[in-house]
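pinging the channel bc i need a second pair of eyes. not urgent but kinda urgent?? the chain im working w is below, pasted from the shared doc
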Amino acid sequence: MTGGAERAGGPTRAGRIGRIGRFVVVGGVNTGTFFGCYLLLHPWMPYFAAYSLAFLLSMVGSFFLNTYFTYRTRPTWKKFALFPLTNVTNYLVQSVGLYALVTWAGMDDRVAPLVAAVVAIPFTYLLAQRILTSGAAGTSSTERNDQATAVAARVDCEVE
C-alpha cells in the first residue's frame, strides 16, 4: 500500500496522518482568516462585534475547508448545523487546560494557552471527523468509493 491508500476498514496510518496534517493546516488558515477579518472589521465596529463577526466568518470558512480539504466529504446542512460543536469543544478543552496548566502545574500564563491549544487539537479533530464524516466508520463517501475501487482493482489483478 502506498501513501494515503485506503483499506477496506478505513484510512491507512499514512492516510490518517495526512488527514491530521490537513486538519492542522486548516486550523492555521482558519486562525489567519479570523485575525485578518478581525483587523479589517475592527475600524468599522466595536472590538467585540468585530471579534464575533470574524469568529463566525472564520467558522464558516473552516467548515468548508474541513469538509472539502481535510475530510473530503460532501457538506450538508446537518453537518453545518453541528459543526459549531467542534468550536465549543475546542474552547472548553483549551479553557480547562489553561486553568489546569496555570493553577495546578504552575506554568507561565503566557505559554500555557499555546500548550492548551495543542492539547485541544486531538479532541477537536475527533469531533470534527465524527460530524463531517457522519460517523460512517470514520470514512467519507469519497473514501468509501476509493476503497471499493481499490478492492475491485485487487480482484481484477487476482482474476487475470
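so DSSP finds six helices and two strands in the chain. and The two ends are 20 Å apart (CA to CA). — does that match what u expected or am i reading it wrong
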